[in-house]
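Key result, reporting period 2: structure in, sequence out.
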């Protein structure tokens, strides 16, 4: 007997053992055995309540797994299994009858999460696996070492991005435009750095962004010429490979980049006298050198 209810069935295995099927019940009941000689002493049998789950928090995480979640419900004491779909949790701890902490395994899509206890298996709550973001391009892919260049990152799964980094430095700011595009402002930096995006699904692959140092001008050859346009001038310095403009005073000059240290320019026409010459590159604008226009002699 289980309390006042008879076992659903039983088998006498030996003079020292009986196998019985417990009837339905609640709480703790006294189990006794009757035979022709009388009724035995009682031993206790505890009915475990059917467990239930109400929430999983957070309810999403990367497909690589590793997310620590809190499962809330009832009757969770003595849990023997926590599963995400058909996969056991990487680990779990029963904190109380109403709470379990579990670590999600790797997975994909949306999966039911259940807990099994001696009282049965809960109904499901759902955990959503998110794909890691991917980045395919950064445009422009270079800018001045002082930072502040606005770049567009293109890729996939960018919604919900929580960080954009240039090397180990966070972007000055960023805006998620869509699932495939982020606009970010590059921080100050040096050299070539890996740009990544972090989202609920993990950390993306990287694309390379290159910081360009400010240009330096060291000489002009020749340093003087006629007032008419057309005189060739060789500009020598460093960091000139990305030259985008050469100016003689306020007047732009035609130019050709020969190397990182040399630019060939054509001096524009101008009034006699000195004029400042500078070079602008992706890395910024150089300091100026003086070019002097000399008027043709009068005859």
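The corresponding designed sequence is given below.
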């Amino acid at each position: 007997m289980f309390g006042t209810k008879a076992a659903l069935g039983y088998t006498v295995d030996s003079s020292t053992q009986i196998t019985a099927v417990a009837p339905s019940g609640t709480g703790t009941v006294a189990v006794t055995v009757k035979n022709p000689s009388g009724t035995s002493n009682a031993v206790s049998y505890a009915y475990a309540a059917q467990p239930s789950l109400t929430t999983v928090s957070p309810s999403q995480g990367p497909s690589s797994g590793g997310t620590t979640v809190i499962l809330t419900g009832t009757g969770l004491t003595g849990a023997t299994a926590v599963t995400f779909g058909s996969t056991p949790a990487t680990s779990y701890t029963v904190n109380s009858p109403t709470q379990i902490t579990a670590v999600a395994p790797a997975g994909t899509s949306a999966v039911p999460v259940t807990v099994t206890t001696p009282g049965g298996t809960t109904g499901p709550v759902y955990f959503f696996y998110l794909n890691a973001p991917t980045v395919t391009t950064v445009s422009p892919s270079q800018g001045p070492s002082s930072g502040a260049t606005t770049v567009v990152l293109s890729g996939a799964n960018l919604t919900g991005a929580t960080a954009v980094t240039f090397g180990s430095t966070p972007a000055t700011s960023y805006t998620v435009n869509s699932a495939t595009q982020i606009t970010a402002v590059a921080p100050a930096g040096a050299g070539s750095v890996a740009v990544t995006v972090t989202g609920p699904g993990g950390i993306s692959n990287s694309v390379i962004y290159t910081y360009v140092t400010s240009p330096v001008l060291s000489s002009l050859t020749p340093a003087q010429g006629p007032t008419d346009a057309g005189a060739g001038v060789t500009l020598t310095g460093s960091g000139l490979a990305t030259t985008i403009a050469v100016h003689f005073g306020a007047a732009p000059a035609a130019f050709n980049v020969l190397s990182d240290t040399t630019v060939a320019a054509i001096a524009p026409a101008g009034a006699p006298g000195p004029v400042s010459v500078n070079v602008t590159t992706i890395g910024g604008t150089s300091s100026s050198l003086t070019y002097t226009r000399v008027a043709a002699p009068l005859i």
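The longest strand covers residues 273-281. The mean pLDDT is 95. This case is discussed further under Risks and Mitigation.
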